[in-house]
């Protein structure tokens, strides 16, 4: 704890909290999450968080940042270290943090009902926890594969979960959310699976994309391998069904975005012809009407596509620096988001593609210094940045 005014000698932090009334406290933990606490007016009453300045997604070059959103379109969901961040889209100062993973969390996904979140980590564990209470009570925990979880998808009735990643004997699994019982085998890949999605309408399908350059197709439940598509020549980074289930899109490090029939898997076409981007494509997100989709690429652009014509509607040029490479995207209600290699979250403007509506900046590495002045918080992180957070009291 760093009190205001600062202590002249080391003291017990809890004792100081009892002595000082109405004074703000900055809490710094060995993570990149910054909390501002306010002590209660009445002595010995509990204190509560006043603001949470949540970190940005942690990025790695040429690696997808997987974003998911809540069914109501209010939040964006991602992981940083051992934490899962639920971030409000309208007010970036409002966030909730889940910190119950014992190792690094890798991906998290809301159930379609909105009542639960399934989050995975590098050990291959899946934790399913409640979203309606601040305590985020753990409902179930499973170990579907023996390596890092890379993607998670729920069935539309919130009863089944499909996961994929870096397993040993298998790279994916589909199971019942309340018992862990298997409802199919994910076979057909010879290398790690990067992405998985569950068709949101009947007949149910599961699609996967892997580091063996393949897209695999499964029918069920119980899900069984049906077909393999080999349109891509490099890693398949993301596969996503459209909201109405009519189409599937896969994107790859080869710069291609391929559209398939959502029921049969037949190839419908490629966005932009031979290549959709001049660099690898790391994410794809569908619009709510299933007629348009958004792609994010290492060529430092995002593109909005008309799926019917396979032509570009808008191109968002995000900069010229290496840190402007785009590694993730999400279409959440009326918000079009992308994530840069820097970790910045960009709110894209369809009416003015040259300039984002706003850019959410901050830290995505551990904090090692902190100071406050007036209503502003200054946080120094291990990457050499000083991040300025304001206002202190929301």
UniProtKB/TrEMBL annotation:
Q: Which GO terms describe its molecular function?
A: actin filament binding
- Decide whether keyword Cytoplasm is in the record: yes
Question: Biological process GO terms, please?
Answer: actin filament depolymerization; locomotion
Q: Which GO terms describe its cellular component?
A: cortical actin cytoskeleton
Where can this protein be found?
Answer: Cytoplasm
Q: InterPro entries from the xrefs?
A: WD40/YVTN_repeat-like_dom_sf, WD40_repeat_CS, WD40_repeat_dom_sf, WD40_rpt
Q: What is this protein called?
A: WD repeat-containing protein 1
Source organism (scientific name): Geodia barretti (Barrett's horny sponge)
């Amino acid at each position: 704890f760093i009190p205001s005014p600062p202590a002249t000698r080391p003291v017990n932090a809890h004792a100081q909290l009892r002595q000082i009334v109405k004074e703000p406290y900055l809490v710094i933990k060995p993570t990149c999450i910054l909390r501002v606490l306010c002590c209660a007016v009445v002595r010995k009453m509990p204190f509560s968080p006043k603001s949470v300045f949540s970190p940005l997604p942690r990025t790695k070059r040429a690696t997808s940042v997987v974003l998911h959103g809540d069914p109501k379109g209010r939040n964006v969901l991602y992981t940083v270290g051992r934490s899962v961040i639920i971030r409000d889209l309208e007010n970036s100062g409002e966030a909730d943090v889940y910190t119950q993973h014992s190792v690094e969390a890798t991906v998290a996904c809301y159930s379609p009902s909105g009542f639960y979140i399934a989050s995975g980590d590098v050990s291959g564990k899946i934790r399913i926890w409640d979203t309606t209470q601040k305590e985020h009570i753990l409902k179930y925990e499973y170990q579907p594969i023996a390596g890092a979880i890379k993607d998670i998808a729920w069935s539309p009735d919130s009863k089944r979960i499909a996961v994929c990643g870096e397993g040993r004997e298998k790279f994916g699994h589909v199971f019942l959310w309340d018992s862990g019982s298997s409802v199919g085998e994910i076979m057909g890949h010879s290398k790690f699976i990067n992405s998985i999605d569950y068709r949101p309408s009947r007949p149910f399908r599961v699609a996967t994309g892997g580091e063996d350059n393949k897209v695999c197709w499964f029918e069920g439940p119980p899900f069984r391998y049906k077909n393999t598509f080999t349109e891509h020549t490099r890693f398949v980074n993301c596969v996503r069904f459209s909201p109405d289930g009519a189409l599937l899109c896969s994107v790859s490090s080869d710069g291609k975005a391929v559209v398939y029939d959502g029921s049969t898997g037949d190839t419908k076409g490629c966005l932009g012809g031979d290549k959709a981007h001049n660099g690898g494509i790391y994410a794809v997100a569908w619009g709510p009407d299933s007629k348009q989709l958004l792609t994010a690429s290492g060529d430092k652009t995002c593109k909005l596509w008309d799926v019917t014509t396979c032509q570009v509607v808008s191109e968002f040029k995000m900069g010229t620096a290496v840190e402007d490479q785009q590694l993730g995207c999400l279409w959440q209600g009326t918000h079009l988001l992308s994530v840069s290699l820097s970790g910045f979250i960009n709110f894209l403007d369809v009416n003015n593609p040259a300039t984002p509506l706003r850019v959410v900046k901050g830290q995505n590495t551990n904090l090692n210094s902190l100071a406050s002045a007036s209503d502003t918080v200054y946080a120094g992180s291990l990457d050499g940045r000083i991040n300025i957070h304001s206002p202190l009291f929301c």
